[in-house]
Design goal:
The chain is of the alpha/beta class. It has eleven helices and eleven strands. It has helices at 2-12, 41-47, 59-69, 90-99, 115-123, 138-144, 150-167, 187-193, 247-251, 282-286, 289-300; strands spanning 24-27, 75-78, 103-108, 128-132, 172-179, 201-206, 228-230, 236-238, 252-255, 260-262, 275-276. Helix 3 (59-69) packs parallel to helix 4 (90-99). The longest helix is centred in the middle third of the chain and has 18 residues, at 150-167. It is globular, with a radius of gyration of 20 Å.
Length: 313
Amino acid sequence: MLQAETDMLLCRLGIMHWKHMPSFVSVEPAGFCQLRCPECPVGQAAAAGSAAQRQFMDFALFSRILHELAPYVHTMQFYFQGEPLLNTQLPRMLQAAHDKGIYTVVSTNAQLLTQETALALLGAGLNRIIVSVDGLTEEVYSAYRQGGSLQKALNGLRFLREAKTQLKAHTCIELQCLRLKTNEHQWADFRRNYKQLGADRLTLKTAQLYDYQHGNPLMPTNPRYSRYVRGSDGLYHLRHTGRGLCRRLLSGCVIDSAGNVLPCCFDKAREHPFGNMDKQTFAECWLSPQAFAFRRKVLENRQNVHICTNCTE
């Protein structure tokens, strides 16, 4: 961590001295999803009938990632774009990371969260699980989670609560709801009922939208709860634009299901790969010429980097 802080200070002075390793990483167990959420690239591809690559991260690749990064990372997130529970090796991955003393997080739509799966996840030492529920009636839920079932998601929360009690686990069960116009009338109900639904914590999260400049039907009525604000030019702009040094760029990265090392979760189209762990070590990717070129571009002017223009970091 001391090396990372030193490198960050040097970056602020315009010096690209980059020798530290990341302190957190997101790995993607599966690169596809069974839902068609309108603001998700994977969901949009499915809705358009595109043949999404059904890519799983195999355990051998994960083992190499863990072997290289265990000495450095304190947190490992098991999600990126696809639905992690589609990979049946997920509990095994969690257990391996847990055995290395790494804090583990999973984010899921809970459509595959059975009683058996809940026991397997919590039994593997999972520290935190985020369950996405964007409505408290089937109609509201399916307005965004297209192709999903609210009842399955609620059953998943119940299975997690039962598994936590049975195993006496310390896993944090977090219910997450995107703030959308479709569900804004239910936010108060979420606050009142999330514990009865089985969650320990509730997060009402602003939604990232792709088509926002001329407005978007998913934007909440109250602009306070949107990432976007209407400017004097009549167009919508990101409310808080990240203009300073990007700490995520300096402290973490994403490794997708195919082994591509990516700068962050905003590189959804995989436009800026640092390398691929099927052919290189992580260190070779992290310290590659492509990685240095990308970081320098971000440091020079983040607004010239497409993936940074919708980021508030």
